[in-house]
Amino acid sequence: MKKFLKIAGGVVFLMIAAIAAGFAVIANMDPNDFRAYLTAKIKEATGCDLKIAGDLKIFVSLTPSVIANDLTLSNAAWGSRPHMVSLKRLETGLSLMPLLIGALKSLFGK
Fold it and tell me: Is 80 exceeded by the pLDDT of residue 93?
């Protein structure tokens, strides 16, 4: 039982260290550097052009969020208007705690 607790503690420590390292990397990068990558992936997935005219921002916390300003998604060729959607601001987030709890439950077999 003692060996199991040491292994489990080590796994939890490694998970926390990896998350902390990920936060450090994300906090020190400029999200605007990924603008071309994001627009290419949207084009690949939808066939529509995404234009990000404003800034991209990433906020790192237990609920990290991404904010993008002045977005425009082109319409399909058969559409009646040039843009499918135009957004002044898009904000999305992710709750990490349920993901971590789910990972720990699957690790310990619950």
Answer: yes
